[in-house]
Design a protein that fits this description.
369 residues; mainly alpha; elongated; Solute carrier family 25 member 3; mitochondrion; transport
Length: 369
């Protein structure tokens, strides 16, 4: 899933041929070990080499070039499926979680929340808000996964091969934060509609009822007043989601899986993806839950600000519904990565192996003879 541009060590071009297999091993991104001096690539007699980028291992049968328009488009499509479908599937749990946050006196626990909702609205009541959820999170997934790939390659090109490997965790964090900034702008309108439908009984039952009513009451601001709390919630969440996932995959293949990824079947690789996604999801839920509570209450109460809601909830109130969110987000994140990786497999997109130290860096550290 990673790539980086190739920066050759001086006088080493003859020793390290430009093969796809070798470049595949030169993958991004970890906390830096030390500062590296920029190394100038020697000029060839007939041309000057430029930084190169690799899509996948040489044995992979890929359908497009890594970083091409087709690659980004299909990654965005994978994001639509992974986020849109999974968030819609857990709407009942999300509805109960939101109600726990905004009305804890009435909805005292997950089980109680389900019972009260079914008693008052019937089984169909658990599906309230499914339409804005599907539309909003599909748009978010398009930007989240698509832009993550864009920014990961962009920042990697700026760093170069060696620093990309040494700073790979920081690169994951920066790329995911940049992507989520735009993803939340796409999500905010439908998130506001969803919360209003789910947490205000009698306000509106459908997307078509809620949108004109919200616009008539508060104008366009009604759909974007929650974007800052969304950034507060989603950017830390996404940074943890992507960085934790990438590093967990790396560690699983290194210490848990008994064979290299290249020897694993596609099904085995997807199992690793699911496990890493669930681990990442648990951490995501914890990191982003306080801001999630603020977003839920803010979209319910007109005229309130994020600071006012935060003071009202207090230190304990911001953690209401955490267990429900851990279950929801853990499952959600695991399924999202599974679906996203499955899309890459189905469309034969480049999927480089976990990062390995570049040969030029090994030489500098004296790890090669």
């Amino acid at each position: 899933m990673l790539t980086c541009c190739s920066v050759a060590a001086p006088q080493a071009s003859a020793m390290y041929p430009s093969t796809l297999t070798q470049l595949a091993r030169a993958n991004p991104f970890s906390a830096p070990l030390f500062s590296l001096q920029k190394v100038e690539e020697p000029q060839q007699s007939h041309h000057t080499q430029r930084p190169r980028r690799l899509a996948a291992a040489a044995t992979d049968d890929v359908s497009c070039e890594f970083g091409s328009s087709k690659y980004y488009a299909l990654c965005g499509f994978g994001g639509i499926l992974s986020c849109g479908l999974t968030h819609t599937a857990v709407v009942p749990l999300d509805l109960v979680k939101c109600r726990l946050q905004v009305d804890p006196d009435k909805f005292k626990s997950i089980g109680n929340g389900f019972r009260v909702t079914i008693r008052e609205d019937g089984i169909r009541g658990l599906a309230k808000g499914w339409a804005p959820t599907f539309i909003g999170y599909s748009m978010q997934g398009l930007c989240k996964f698509g832009f993550y790939e864009v920014f990961k390659i962009f920042y990697s090109d700026l760093l170069g091969e060696e620093n990309t490997y040494l700073w790979r965790t920081s690169l994951y964090l920066a790329a995911s934060a940049s992507a989520e900034f735009f993803a939340d702008i796409a999500l905010a309108p439908m998130e506001a509609v969803k919360v209003r439908v789910q947490t205000q009984p009698g306000y509106a039952n459908t997307l078509r009822q809620a949108v004109p009513k919200m616009f008539a009451e508060e104008g366009l601001w009604a759909f974007y007043k929650g974007v800052v709390p969304l950034w507060m919630r989603q950017i830390p969440y996404t940074m943890m989601k992507f960085a934790c996932f990438e590093r967990t995959v790396e560690l699983l293949y290194k210490y848990v899986v008994p064979k290299p990824r290249s020897e694993c079947s596609k099904a085995e690789q997807l199992v690793v993806t699911f496990c890493a996604g669930y681990i990442a999801g648990v951490f995501c839920a914890i990191v982003s839950h306080p801001a999630d509570s603020v977003v839920s209450v803010l979209n319910k109460e007109r005229g309130s600000t994020a600071v006012q809601v935060l003071k009202k909830l207090g230190p304990k109130g911001v953690w209401k519904g955490l267990v429900a969110r851990i279950i929801m987000i853990g499952t959600l994140t695991a399924l999202q990565w599974f679906i996203y990786d499955s899309v890459k497999v189905y469309f034969r997109l480049p999927r480089p192996p976990p990062p390995d130290m570049p040969e030029s860096l090994k030489k500098k550290l004296g790890l090669t003879e």
